[in-house]
Fold this protein.
Amino acid sequence: MNDAAIIDLYFKRDEQALTLTEEKYGQKLRGIAFGILSDRMMAEECENDTYLRAWNAIPPASPKEHFFAFLAKIIRRLSINRLRDGARQKRNADLVALTAEMELCLPCGEDVEGTVDEKLLMKSISDFIKALPKEQRLVFVRRYWYLDSVEQIASRLGIGQSKVKSILSRGRKRLKEHLEKEGFSV
Amino acid sequence: MRGEELIDLFEDLDDELIEEAATATLLPTYQKRRTLLVACACALLVLSAPAFFLFSGLFKGSVTTDDLPSALPSDGAMASKIPEVPSLRPGLSAGESLPPPEESNVPWSEPSDDPFEGSDTFLLALHMISSFKIHVENGVVTQVTAPDSESGEAILAELKAEGKEPTGGTLENALVWLFEQMLERGEHQENDTVTLALLSYEDGLSTPEAQKALLDEGADILSRLAESKDAVIRITTEGAVD
C-alpha cells in the first residue's frame, strides 16, 4: 500500500494504519533506534512510541510525500533523548565524541546564543549536503543524521575507514566555510 | 550553539536526504571487480564461440575437406575462373614477394605510449594532502614511498590490495594511480594545490629544459586526470634542488 493510502487511514482514525506502517517501515525504524541505542529492547520501545506519536500527530500533519522521513525524525529524537537519559554509558560516550566532532562544523562567532535562525541554518546545511557528490553526501548523512560510526559507514558503503574519515574531515571543514560564507556565526 | 544542539538541529535535515541515505549502499570494490571480470569472461566466450566450434570440429575430424560440396569445379576449372590479382605495390608483379624487412630502409621502433620513455634516473615528489616519493630508474618506477604521510601509506596499501603496484611500471601509471586515489578519497577542495617536484636526478636530466619537460609532462597528466574527475586543482611544479 502506498504512503498516501496509509495516511488516509490515519485521517479516518483506522488502527490498521499502525499495522501497515509497522509492516512497511518497522524494520528500518528499529534499525535507526538500534544504531543509536545499541539495545534491542529499548529500540523496540522507541519504535512503539514512534507509532503512538505518529497517531497523535496525523492529523493535522499529513506527510504524504515523505512519510518515512517523518517517522524517522520521530524515532531519532526519541532514541537520542533516551540515550541522553544516561542509561547507555558506552553509547553516550559515542554521542559525546560525535558532539565534539560536530562542533568543528560551526563557525566561531561572537553572536549570543539564540540569535541564529535555526530554520535558515538547517536550510543552508541541507543545501550544502545536497550539492556534495553522492558518496560524500551519503557518508555525511549516515554520520550526522543516522549517527552511524565510521566502521558502520565503511562497511555499509563498501569503502575504507580511512576514506570515510577523510570525507568527514573535509566535509566538516567545507561546511564551516560554507556557513561562514552564508553569514552564519554560531 | 553547541555540537549537541547541532545534533538536534540536524533532525530537520531535508527529507529527501534522509530517505536517500536510509537504504544507501555503494557497490563495493570487490563487487565492481567481480562484475567486470564476469563481463569480460562473457564477452570473451561470445567472441570466441565461432572460432571454438570451427576448430573443435576440425580437430575432432567432424569437419573435413570431404564435406566440401562435390559440386565445386575441379582444380583446373577453378583456376581458370580466378581472376589475376593486380599487384598492390608498383614495381611488383603478381606472385612476386616483398623484400625482407631488413632490406627496407624504414627504421623499426617499438611502439610506445609512455611519455616518459627514455627519461633518466630521478626522484620525484608528489604532494597534496598525502605525500609520495617516486624513484624512477631508466624510465621504470623502482620505488614509491610515503615518508611521514599516514594517508599516503594508506593509499599505497589500498593500491596494493587492488593489484595496482606502482613499482615496476611506468611513471605515468604511478602518477595516475596515486593522484586518482587522492581525489577519490576526497583529499581535495576547490583550488587545492598539488605539487610535483624533482628532488634529484642524474645526467640525462641535467639541463633545465629536460627537467621542465619532464615536470610539464607530469603536470599535464595530473591536470587531465583532475579534469576528468571534475576536480578544480591547481598543479604546480618545482625544479630540481641540486
Summary: DSSP finds nine helices and no strands in chain A.
